[in-house]
Amino acid sequence: MADDPQNTPGNGSEDERQGATGTGAGNTSSGTVGKGAEGGDQADAVKEAETARAAAEKRATDAEAEATRLRRSNAATRGTDLDALREEVRQEFTEQLVRAELRVAAAGKLRDPADALALLDVSSLAGSGGDIDAAAVAAAVDQLVKDKPYLAVAQTGAAPSWGDVGAGPREIAEPEPATPFDRLRDAYGTA
């Protein structure tokens, strides 16, 4: 029973290993370990330590297995409500769709469409049953632009006119000189 990994204090196995007081069983030497004829005591001590270590490892493994079993048992008896889980997933998905709809609606109206996500209540724009009211989303973005016009895209009537900056092809006022000598004559103003 000394090699039993299930031995625990109080089972009597420790008394059997060490011997009861007043009996001749067990380790009866009272000298120092490892000297002279008592060298076998050291081997017994090592074997006893290994046995105790194996027993402790076995108890730890059993405790982990029991904890896992109890977690599973608690999860099974807790009663997971599948309808509640489905509703939670549906609500998260609907909110994601509303956020996407907000980004689309704000794309041409706001400088940064993420402002609409930060400033508008997404949960209030989700319809019942997971439907999204596109008109309500557009109205909310329009109201945001009306309330905070500095978020809106700058509206200009026409594209900005830069005028003539001297680039591109030009109309020639005088005909091109035919020879390089004519070009020099025109440059120095000699006739």
Mean pLDDT: 75
Q: pLDDT under 50 segments (min length 5)? A: 10-37
Oligomer category: single chain
Shape: elongated
- Determine the strand fraction and express it as a percent band: under 5%
Provide a quick synopsis of the model:
This protein is mainly alpha-helical and 191 residues long. It has helices spanning 13-18, 39-78, 82-106, 114-119, 122-125, 134-147, 180-188.
What this model shows, in words?
- It is elongated and about 130 Å long.
- It has 191 residues and is an all-alpha fold.
- Residues 10-37 have low confidence and may be disordered.
- The chain has 7 helices and no strands.
Which SSEs are present, and which pair or pack?
Blueprint: H1 13-18, H2 39-78, H3 82-106, H4 114-119, H5 122-125, H6 134-147, H7 180-188
Helix pairs in contact: 3-6
